[in-house]
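Milestone M4 deliverable, item 7.
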Amino acid sequence: MTQKVAVLGTGKIGEALLSGMIRGGWAPSDLLVTARRPERAAQLHERYGVEAVSNAEAAKSADTLILTVKPQDMGTLLTELAPHVPADRLVISGAAGIPTSYFEERLAAGTPVVRVMTNTPALVDEAMSVISAGTHATAAHLTRAEEIFSGVGKTLRVPESQQDACTALSGSGPAYFFFLVEAMTDAGILLGLPRDKAHDLIVQAAIGAAVMLRDSGEHPVTLRENVTSPAGTTINAIRELENHGVRAALIAALEAARDRSRELASGSG
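Output delivered:
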């Protein structure tokens, strides 16, 4: 961890990554940050002891550049960075839907680019970060990306051709669970429970179920069947979910998210 790393456009996810790196053993002196607003840069310096610099200074000084700006701002950032990024810099993109070729075309020939799709549980160190190599990225570059993103959760290497599917499943995934908790909380209110009690019951059920999925090694069908007794309450609920096409709706929703990721990658809006 002796190489200098810069986080450019340090918003919520960028800050989560920064704090995770520090907890993971990175020295603040080896980390740089950039931010659009001076007051934000000053806040990050005060909070973490890292140096706040301009984008150009980060490009010149850091061995690894992590670009965490929004996808719609990436073109402007690359125009600013391009004159200052040598071909031996590792560029890591956290922008959904933008392929590594987009960066390779705008930076010096041979620049290694790694694409990472993470998700908002990075804020609580429970992210899933999906990592793909660009044309010039080596196994060592992928390992460096893993070292960085493992500070905020788990990492998984996939071919870049699978990134859109991973974005639909994992990048957007937390939103689906929040939506489900919202709906189940409303159902609890309909059944006569106060909102706060319904919320607490559903959240703990979600946490318990997730831990069982992670730690038991059992297939989700097996775990569901363990709760589903003959002619009981659970099977009646499952029947209604199937009658209303919940499984088909989830598949269609993920396909729609994947297709939108492809649209973003193609620049069609």
